[in-house]
Amino acid sequence: MSLNKSVFEENESSVRSYCRKYPVVFEKAKGSYIYDTDGNKYLDFLAGCGALNYGHNNDEIKGAVIDYLMGDNIAHAMDMYTEAKAEFIETFKTEILDKRDLKYRIMFCGSTGTNAVEAALKLCRKNKKRSNIVAFMGAFHGMTLGSLALTTDRTSRDGAGVSLDNVTFIPYESGFHTKLDSLDYLETILLDDHSGVEKPAAVIVETVQAEGGIYVASVEWLKILEKICHDNDILLVVDDIQVGCSRTGTFFSFERAGIKPDMVTLSKSIGGYGFPMSLLLIRDELDIWKPAEHNGTFRGNQVAFVAAKKAIEYNVKHDLNADVTRKGGIVKDFVEKNILPLSEDISLRGIGLIWGIDFGKLANGGEIAHSIADKCFEKKMIIERAGRGDSVLKILPPLTISDEELKQGLEIILEAVKETL
Ligand SMILES: Cc1ncc(COP(=O)(O)O)c(C=O)c1O
Q: Max CA-CA distance within the chain?
């Protein structure tokens, strides 16, 4: 039955955003689809902004969650020891960390990604006794004040109400600032005693800038970045909140570069089922927190631990990484063959199952991308935009999407692009 939207419009804060782009009332969801209260079925190419890598209501994960709830097992325990947490840690360690020869301590943070970023910032500053952090233009790291200081888009920053400082921004590798060698610039800042820039405690990087417009850093660039950090006693933090958990075809997005960050933030799909969960991975000797020095009530959603454990097992059992890489090839081939020939001013960037079709070089590229996303929604597909001027159409389906669903979504995008151009 159709539901009146006035309950939201009259009562909810004007800060709401996604509901303005997809103005229907959603009710059910399964796999790659979401259903509204009128029974319309929408193909989901947004996937909870990366929180639903395993699809909606994944049966294998759901089974474990229901069993846990039905057994009256503990649901909330702050950071107390529980069986659910122990099982998650053991599974994460054996299936993810040990297999990659990664040794990290796990810090469970408050329930959203920005909490892990805040914890990383504090701990880097505490270790190095320096306040400055280097971040990249185009970065998105969250909305609380520390993370927001690292986040670049004007709309987000305008909401702060205080100065956002102790951060030095430098250009990212590819695309937007092609003329500037950003790592050469970083080294110059560090080595020149007249650079005027305080030595940073850390560099924080997304190996694929997602909200920034799907810019994929090269392996070579990431390796040089790691070396500069090591050579200059600066910590390297990889924010894997959006592109971790197999989004790029490896569990951690930095695996392809063979680098070992000092700290890693993870959230979104680590909770397996869309459940809130966030963690910071810390190189052992950097874990200098005093007990309770970074605290929070919701640092241990036990149901999320159960889902997270099952999600890792699902990931390994179904060889998700290989499947993501294969499906990424389907996206690339389709867009290169059918959409790029429509205009030489359209470009494609991406890896695994995160892709951006960039309309930014077209006059009114932002409006064009907006119109395409709206037309996709009319055609019953949910898709988001990102990047400068919101001119990049962002393809971010659940990793579990079938080949048929993926192709169907790409056909919808093609139709919408043709109708708009
Ligand atoms: C790379 C990255 N870091 C941090 C965050 C913040 O996560 P949350 O919205 O859960 O606080 C996001 C959210 O989109 C993100 O993409």
A: 67
> How much distance in Å is there from the Cα of 365 to the middle of ligand 1?
25
Rounded distance from Cα 68 to ligand 1 centre (Å): 28
Let me know if residue 338 belongs to a domain: no
pTM of the model: 0.97
Distance CA 56, CA 40 (A): 16
pLDDT in tens, 251-299: 999 999 999 999 999 999 999 999 999 999 999 999 999 999 999 999 9
We report the CATH number of the domain holding residue 97 as 3.40.640.10
Domain assignment present for residue 417? The answer is no
Instruction: Give the residue ranges of DSSP H helices in 318-352.
Output: 320-334
Nearest CA to ligand 1 atom 7: 113
Task: Establish how many alpha carbons lie within 13 A of residue 230's alpha carbon, considering only the half-sphere containing its beta carbon.
Answer: 10
* 121 assigned to some structural domain: yes
> Strand, helix or coil at 152?
coil
Which of 85, 84, 350 is closest to 213 using CA atoms? 350
What average pLDDT does the chain have?
Answer: 96
